[in-house]
Specification:
It is built from one helix and six strands, in the order ββαββββ. The strands form two sheets. It has a three-stranded antiparallel beta sheet with strand order 1-2-3, with no helix packed on it. A hairpin with a 4-residue loop joins strand 5 and strand 6. The longest helix is centred in the first third of the chain and has 5 residues. It is extended and about 65 Å long.
Length: about 120
């Protein structure tokens, strides 16, 4: 969820996603997630307690009700992010260097060193 919005104003559930696999032993379902969620590294398997069935609205009872806008999963690729702090670093098994970066909006991610070559924080 976006960091600049009040949690109570954010949607509790998003999307209508197709179930592509079910596991009755563990009550887990694998969903066909949009690429925007995959890019944010959202795992596609969810427990049944986190899912809700979709009920289409009745146009005769609620004639002026519009479909909710698709959820905005973040800023566009042209938006420039600012680094608040480099928290740490690690070397992966293949020798690649990654930095743990805390962004100005509050997110913390691991970024490959190749993405961090122009950072003034590394000077």
């Amino acid at each position: 969820m976006p960091k600049d919005r009040a949690r109570k104003l954010c949607p509790k559930f998003i999307g209508l996603y197709k179930v592509i696999e079910s596991n009755p032993e563990t009550s887990n379902y694998k969903l066909d997630l949009p690429q925007a969620l995959v890019n944010q590294r959202i795992h596609p398997v969810f427990h049944v307690s986190l899912l809700r069935p979709f009920h289409e609205s009745d146009n005769t009872l609620f004639p002026d009700q519009t479909q909710p806008e698709p959820y905005d999963f973040g800023l566009d690729d042209k938006h420039e992010w600012f680094i608040y702090e480099i928290i740490g670093h690690c070397h992966l098994d293949d020798g690649q260097l990654e930095f743990e970066v805390q962004w100005s909006l509050g997110d913390t991610t691991w970024e490959p060193a190749g993405n961090c070559t122009d950072l003034s924080a590394l000077d």
